[in-house]
DNA sequence: CGTCATGTTGAGCGTCATCAACAGGAGTGG
DNA sequence: CCACTCCTGTTGATGACGCTCAACATGACG
């Protein structure tokens, strides 16, 4: 537990320890680098396609989306990010952003200068491994979204997204489970859900009604309730393996060993 | 230039230098680790979903696809890989594969044991940065595929894939350019093209005819010819920036500096 | 025998339009 | 200061219509 665990940065350092298996000194140092914390309103770009950031953004509260906008104005959401992640970490290695980072809800975000991150990476080489692993998991999620967009009909596509977000939210303690039922906040409008699934807002509306009629999900404003997770999982063809290809803590040994090996040179 | 540059491993070490900006000693060492080179027939899995590989696969000749198969038997191709890449590099960090690696053509592939890669990464910490960067570029390509699958109509979707592959192939010298025309090998059947774009094989067939009728592309068996790259680029809404978010050689300074910084500890 | 080609049919989904519900903000009067 | 209205923008809901694309044919070509 770092001294930051109680503030807004706490969720960040907590995740670094639990999910990314970073050792406490590294996550503590990272947490201390987060500065310039401020609040963004909903539906606002934090980073834009074509930008060349000199700092990275840490999401501390709220949801953000990765998205690209086509010439015609159509927007495709390619990923959803929940708190404690660094959505534009790639700008450290790829200077020009290929997509936008946009707030979904009101968002509290902090910033870490690239220079500080680079310095910390030379001090703790295993940090690069942790970042690489984060990127690999993002990649696995992106692949599953490709399958969703390319191969599943509308109802299953929406259901699959709900399954994925339910799993990810529960994993960071932001979903309430009672037996086989799961409820969690859902800040996306039907229009945004359409942008994420490649469907029109109208068709989203009708398909949601179908899912409700089947008794698979319920909506109370800003909140989704999955009545029977097993049924929804089966309906959507959801397999959670891709979200965390290993049990938490398992890769700690690799990262620790790497740290010791480099330090001993 | 390593001593391997003339053999099949040459394309691998060449790309490590040119694209990944690895220094010659590292790429030379990596090239030496490639062993057990053998040839796979077309349409065969090299690595399967659920596998826990203990080695990584280096594609030396031919094309492979990343793909996932749904319960109903529908296959979604999420990425295409051309020679000189390591498609299952992620198995170093995420032990369980979330997707299949399948040959498209006949493929020559070599293998590097995880243990050797891990050892080399402790010897050259900047190798992790290079691998991370590769993963980030893969991620940028995956995002563009998500946009393709979710937001573009059939004709533009296919045209966009042709633009992407033309650019990537030309980048490694496997496309012939004459003025504004570009021709390159195209080993995918119409069925596989459908699996990559989320369209039925029949609709692929008809849309290809439409593209031919518009004079945008021509087909000779196993070969695609883009008659006017600018026109096709405009038609598809293709912007090549995401493929290499920087000019080759630009990130060499970061990786070199990282190598020196860690070595000087 | 796999791949490409071509016709027919219909389901799935997009587009356009309208309407209700709701949340702010400005102004008004109490 | 608070309550009430009016206005406006956003979201969700619903109907009518048309187009894109999938499903199931059946041949033709290597």
UniProtKB/TrEMBL annotation, chains A, B:
Instruction: Please spell out the taxonomic lineage of the organism that makes this protein.
Output: Bacteria, Pseudomonadati, Pseudomonadota, Alphaproteobacteria, Hyphomicrobiales
Any idea what this protein is called?
Answer: Crp/Fnr family transcriptional regulator
**Does the keyword section mention Transcription?**
yes
Q: Where is the HTH crp-type domain?
A: 152-230
Q: Which UniProt keywords apply?
A: DNA-binding, Transcription, Transcription regulation
Which InterPro entries does this UniProt record tie to the protein?
Answer: cNMP-bd_dom, cNMP-bd_dom_sf, HTH_CRP, RmlC-like_jellyroll, WH_DNA-bd_sf
């Amino acid at each position: 537990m770092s001294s930051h665990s109680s503030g807004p940065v706490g969720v960040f350092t907590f995740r670094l320890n639990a999910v990314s298996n970073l050792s406490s000194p590294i996550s503590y140092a990272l947490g201390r680098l987060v500065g310039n914390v401020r609040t963004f309103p909903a539906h606002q770009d934090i980073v834009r396609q074509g930008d060349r950031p000199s700092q990275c953004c840490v999401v501390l509260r709220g949801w953000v989306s990765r998205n690209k906008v086509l010439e015609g104005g159509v927007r495709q959401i390619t990923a959803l990010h929940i708190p404690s992640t660094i959505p534009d970490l790639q700008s450290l290695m790829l200077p020009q952003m290929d997509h936008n980072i946009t707030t979904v809800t009101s968002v509290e975000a902090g910033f870490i200068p690239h220079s500080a991150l680079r310095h910390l990476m030379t001090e703790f080489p295993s940090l690069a491994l942790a970042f690489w692993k984060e990127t690999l998991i993002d990649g696995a999620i992106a692949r599953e979204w490709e399958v969703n967009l390319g191969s599943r009909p509308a109802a299953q596509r929406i259901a699959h997204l709900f399954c994925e977000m339910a799993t990810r939210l529960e994993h960071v303690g932001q979903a309430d489970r009672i037996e086989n039922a799961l409820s969690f906040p859902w800040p996306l409008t039907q229009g945004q859900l359409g942008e994420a699934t490649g469907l029109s807002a109208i068709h989203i509306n009708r398909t949601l009604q179908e899912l409700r009629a089947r008794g698979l999900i319920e909506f109370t404003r800003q909140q989704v309730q999955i009545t029977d997770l097993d049924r929804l999982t089966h309906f959507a063809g959801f397999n959670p393996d891709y979200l965390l290809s290993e049990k938490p803590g398992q890769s700690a040994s690799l990262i620790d060993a790497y740290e010791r090996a480099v330090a001993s040179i």
